[in-house]
Specification:
single chain; about 220 residues
C-alpha cells in the first residue's frame, strides 16, 4: 500500500498520458483521469519532498512539474469539451444513440439536463466535478446549438478549476504522506467527495422565481 508511485508515473510520457486521458473522458466517463492526475501530482510532490529531505542536489528530470501538469490537464479538459461540443453541434440521431448506449451518460443526462438548462454558466463549472457532468454539459451545449461564447469561457474556467483542485489534492497528499498509494487514495476520496457534492447541488430543486409585476 505504501510503495512508491514513481515507477508508474515518473516517465517522460506522463504529460501525454494525462492529456489523452483527460481529453477522452468526455466521451468515456469511466476513464480514471482524475485519479491519474492526482497520482502524478502526488508522485511529483512526494519525490521532491524526499529529495529535499536527504539534501539531494537534483531530482529525476522525468518527475512531473506541478504547474506543467495542471496546465496540461486543464488544456486537455478544454480541448475535449470543444471536440464534444462541435461533434454534438453537427450530430443528431447518432449522438442520441451513442448516449443511449452508455447507462451512465443516460442517467446523468436525465438527472442533470434540466438543471443545466436552467442554471447557465455557474452550473457548467459545478458539473465539471460531477460524475459524467462534463459529458452532459459539452454534448448538451452542442446539441442545443448554444453559442460558443456562452459555453467555451465557462468550459475553460471549469477545466482550470478542476485541474487546479485535482493537482492541489495530489500535491498536498504527496507533501503529507509522500509518493505513496495511500496519499493518492486519500486525495482521490476528496475528489470523489467533491463530485458527490456537485452532483447533489445539480439535482437539488431550485426555488421558483418570484413573479414580478405584470406589464401594463
Amino acid at each position: 500500500m505504501l510503495e512508491s508511485l514513481g515507477s508508474l508515473v515518473v516517465t517522460p510520457w506522463i504529460y501525454v498520458i494525462v492529456g489523452v486521458s483527460v481529453l477522452l473522458d468526455v466521451f468515456l466517463p469511466v476513464l480514471p483521469s482524475g485519479v491519474l492526475v492526482i497520482a502524478a501530482a502526488t508522485a511529483a510532490a512526494g519525490t521532491r519532498r524526499a529529495a529535499d529531505a536527504v539534501g539531494a542536489a537534483s531530482v529525476d528530470p522525468d518527475v512531473p512539474d506541478i504547474l506543467a501538469l495542471m496546465l496540461c490537464a486543464a488544456t486537455a479538459s478544454c480541448l475535449g469539451d470543444l471536440v464534444a461540443y462541435r461533434l454534438a453541434w453537427r450530430g443528431g440521431d447518432r449522438l442520441d444513440r451513442a448516449i443511449a448506449r452508455s447507462r451512465r451518460l443516460t442517467r446523468a443526462q436525465a438527472r442533470l439536463g434540466g438543471a443545466l438548462m436552467r442554471g447557465g454558466g455557474t452550473l457548467v463549472l459545478i458539473a465539471r466535478f460531477a460524475p459524467a457532468g462534463r459529458s452532459v454539459v459539452s454534448l448538451g451545449a452542442g446539441a442545443m446549438h448554444r453559442k460558443a461564447a456562452e459555453f467555451l469561457p465557462w468550459s475553460a474556467l471549469a477545466g482550470f478549476a478542476w485541474a487546479g483542485y485535482s493537482v492541489g489534492l495530489g500535491y498536498f497528499g504527496g507533501q503529507w504522506l509522500g509518493a505513496t498509494w495511500l496519499a493518492t487514495a486519500v486525495s482521490a476520496v476528496a475528489l470523489f467527495a467533491a463530485g458527490a457534492g456537485a452532483a447533489y447541488a445539480l439535482r437539488r430543486p431550485r426555488p421558483a422565481a418570484t413573479a414580478g409585476p405584470s406589464a401594463t
